[in-house]
Design goal:
256 residues, 3-stranded antiparallel β-sheet, binds 2'-O-acetyl adenosine-5-diphosphoribose
Length: 256
């Protein structure tokens, strides 16, 4: 079924993507901030992005936190406030439907996002490479807690040991969570289809999964508003909002 106004090339790209997904025994998906844009969450780069007028080094590094923890917490608390009201969009739900349509273990969702929206949409096998904004981690006793539904002070402290808490997210110059990264690498090298959604594909090591997938013989499908660093590795590019592209793709898979 072609959407009205589509070029022949665009319809052909959808059909190629659907046929790649149909025959893939295992699928891995890498998502970035773009998949949550239609839920009202800002992306990082570009006009209106979180990094516009904000130096990454001032808010998203361990050095920034040591220098001025209140400043860093104000930045993250502003983002945490959004979390309490934000809802998954049609793109998130389409990815959940895709997982649902596959045998257990044949679908892995790898995300750079910290917003928890993939879980809220119903995906189950999720690897959060950059942590989760709803959680806090104690800088003293290392206890991790889910405080998603609470407003926190600008310098929250651990109720157990009194040390300062930090958001349980990965900052620049920090390693990714070991287990999630190992599982992401394994899922990437085992898949026949690697779907890249809503990421500028410039932050490593996450972006490196795209070339690993390609080197291991997977077909790469990109979904984005525009071509990115991932495009040269992609077998197919579907350009437009993921909240429209992904449901259409899933619908095509259902109807055949
Ligand atoms: P970016 O802000 O770098 O890129 C967002 C991408 O989403 C861009 O390529 C946009 O074109 C695309 N996009 C925007 N709206 C979209 C929509 N409705 N549908 C589809 N695509 C859309 O965000 P990330 O690639 O996620 O890391 O950034 C990667 C990492 O850099 C983040 O996890 C974060 C950041 O600094 C840390 O904080 C460690």
């Amino acid at each position: 079924m072609a959407a009205s106004g589509d070029s022949v090339e665009k319809q052909a790209a959808f059909e190629t993507a659907a046929s790649i997904i149909r025959v893939a025994e295992r699928i891995a998906v890498l998502t970035g901030a773009g998949v949550s844009a239609e839920s009202g969450l800002p992306t990082f780069r570009g006009a209106g992005g979180l990094w516009e007028g904000q130096r990454v080094e001032d808010v998203a590094t361990p050095f920034a936190f040591r220098r001025n923890p209140e400043f860093v917490w104000r930045f993250y608390n502003a983002r945490r406030t959004n979390l309490r009201t934000v809802r998954p969009n049609a793109g998130h739900f389409a990815l959940a439907a895709l997982e649902e349509s596959r045998p257990a273990g044949a679908f892995t969702l790898i995300t750079q996002n910290v917003d928890g929206l993939h879980r809220a949409a119903g995906n189950r096998r999720i690897l959060e490479l950059h942590g989760n904004l709803g959680r806090v981690r104690c800088t003293g006793c290392a206890r991790i807690e889910d405080r998603r539904d609470e407003a926190l002070d600008d310098l929250p402290r651990c109720e157990r040991c009194g040390a300062v808490l930090r958001p349980d997210v990965v900052w620049f110059h920090e390693p990714l969570p070991e287990d999630s990264w190992a599982e992401a690498e394994a899922a990437t090298s085992a898949c026949q289809c690697f779907l890249v959604v809503g990421t500028s594909a410039i932050v490593y090591p996450a972006a490196g999964l795209i070339s690993s997938a390609q080197c291991n013989g997977a077909a790469v499908i990109e979904v984005n508003l525009e071509p990115t660093e991932a495009s040269r590795l992609a077998d197919v590019g579907l350009y437009g909002p993921s909240g429209k592209i992904l449901p259409r793709l899933v619908e095509m898979l259902r109807s055949t």
